[in-house]
Amino acid sequence: MIEVKNLYKSYGEKGVLSDINLSVSHGQSVAVVGKSGAGKSVLLRCLIGLVKPDAGTIYIDNKLINTMNFQQLQSIRSKIGMVFQFGALFDSMTVGENISLALQKLTKLNDDEIQDRLLNSLVAVGMEDTEDLMPAELSGGMKKRVGIARAIAIKPAYLFYDEPTTGLDPVMTDIINRLIRKFQDTGNVTSVIVTHEMRTVYDVADRIILLHKGNIQYDGSTDTIDNVDDPVVQQFITGNSTLA
Amino acid sequence: MFQLILYPFNLLVHSLEGVGRYIELMFSMFRSIFSWHKYLSLTIDHMYHIGVLSIPIVILTSLFSGMVTSVQAAYQFESGFVPNWFVGSIVGESVLLELAPMMTALVMTGRIGATIAAEIGTMRVSEQIDALESLSFDPISFLILPRILAATVMFPVLVIIADCFGIIGGLIAAINSMDVSHQEFIRGLRNWFRPWDAWFGLIKGLFFGLAITSIACYQGYYTTGGATGVGKSTTATVVISCVAIVFLDYILAAILLR
User: Fold this and answer.
1) H or E element: which one contains A95?
2) A177 domain residue, yes or no
3) In sequence order, which residues have a C-beta less than 8 Å from that of residue B248 and are 6 or more positions away?
4) Which residues contact A144 (CB under 8 A, 6 or more apart)?
């Protein structure tokens, strides 16, 4: 379970997150949406300990993470698979090495088990026979899928996605959305998806949190958001700039 | 007008902030130095890239530096007051004390400093450093420690190679441009040779290596602003390293050659 209370973050004089309160229960799939610069990615980075908040508390599995040092964070991070916006694959390593590096660090598997897990992860994202390729040889969509393979390889309890479908063609967007949904349904994981693609939201999320100017503007089910009488919410879901 | 007055003040604050962050980064790096054995294979890999692959360019530059020194010595000996075999002494002392470590450092600033800053800077802007951290790797131990260890070992080795080839270059030029036999050149070389001078060059190489790699790692690690930011970090690495090298050169000479 993830619990965020009174979270504040600013860079210099620019406030990014202001009094954020939310709780994500086990097995939920939550989409965090909002315009560019609304603080979505900063919130995700706070959740994994990459950014220290100015104030407030973040609990993951009832452990306060924002005061943890690097060593203490390791036990939490071993439960979290993070998918970065552009894959963030290590340029100097092959696809296989990118995935096995995570497994060597975060699991106690032997070499054969690591190899099995690596191949299974690549098969799960439809990227079999690519373990010897370098990231430079992959397209944007392939990089994202390898990024997902790296994240799911450690069998995490939490999967965090940062803009998983941004910049992809509609077919690749659908492939990624289906993968996210598949891991959500079969992997018994809690997912937090940062995105501004409404199609991804409707395809993969049970719940939607709309950030606006650093605050939570809407927090509710994806089924009911269409009926919300709030111009900011309506502007975002319809993409009509004249509404708010 | 007001901004113009504030500019030097802002520059000073910005520079002091940079020095503070550099010290903090180095402190974090040295704190993880006891786990060096975990990064041994990475360190060996960097030793190959920093050291072995730099040997040809170090040989080339040191060879010509020695030759130039020899030719310039010959030009100044034309008066006839100084015996020709002195050219060996001049070349030997110049190469060991100054030319080999200095030329190696300047060449390595371009070859290694810029590469390290660009590599780590690109990793920063493409979120690879965040990815490392999310996988529970300490990016400072993983990226910076092996590079600095590799440079600390390999720079003195490169200086030794530069010493040898600088003297060889001087010998070749002396034989060709002056009426000096190789026996006379060696006589001059041995006449003024002091082992401390060679040690001094190695110590300088060690400090230059530390300075170049640490500045490059710092600039790369704190890169912001995409491809433009990587370019700025790379340029800053080369400029700051060159200034640091001449500054260290003076400080070390003032302390160690008293």
Assistant:
1) helix A95-106
2) no
3) B204, B207, B208, B211
4) A83, A86, A87, A164, A165, A168, A176
Distance CA B81, CA B79 (A): 6
φ, ψ dihedrals at A34, nearest 5°: 155, 165
pLDDT of residue B60: 96
Segment 164-183 of chain B within 8 Å of chain A by CB? none
Best mutation target among A69, A90, A160 (most B Cβ atoms within 10 Å) is A90
pLDDT digits (tens, 9 = 90+) for A143-197: 988 999 999 898 899 999 998 888 788 888 888 888 888 888 886 899 999 998 8
ipTM of the complex: 0.88
Answer for the pair B159, B99: CB distance below 8 angstroms, yes or no.
no
| A88 located within any domain | no
Contacts of B126 in chain A (CB under 8 A): 86, 88, 91
A233 within some domain: yes
CATH number at residue A37: 3.40.50.300
Q: Does a structural domain hold residue A91?
A: no
Q: Do B134 and A73 touch (CB under 8 A)?
A: no
- Entry field: residues in chain B: 258
Nearest Cβ partner for B128 among A78, A88, A102: A88
Q: Does B130 touch chain A if contact means CB atoms closer than 8 Å? A: yes
- Entry pTM: 0.87
% of chain B residues with pLDDT over 90: 72
pLDDT digits (tens, 9 = 90+) for A13-51: 888 999 999 999 988 999 999 888 888 999 999 999 999
Number of domains, chain A: 1
Residue with tokens 């690549």: A122
How far away is chain A from the Cα of B48, in angstroms, using its nearest Cα?
15
Q: Which residues of A touch B136 (CB under 8 A)?
A: 73-74, 77-78, 105-106
Q: Do B126 and A86 touch (CB under 8 A)?
A: yes
The secondary element (H helix, E strand) that includes residue B45 is: helix B40-50
Structure-token pair, residue A104: 């060597």
Which structural domain range is residue A7 located in?
1-79+159-165+191-244
B40 touches chain A (CB under 8 A): no
| Sign of the dihedral defined by the CA atoms of residues B70, B75, B80, B81, in that order | negative
Query: Which of A47, A48, A50, A78 is the mutation pick for testing B, counting most B CBs within 10 A?
Result: A50
Distance of CA B104 to the CA centre of its chain: 6
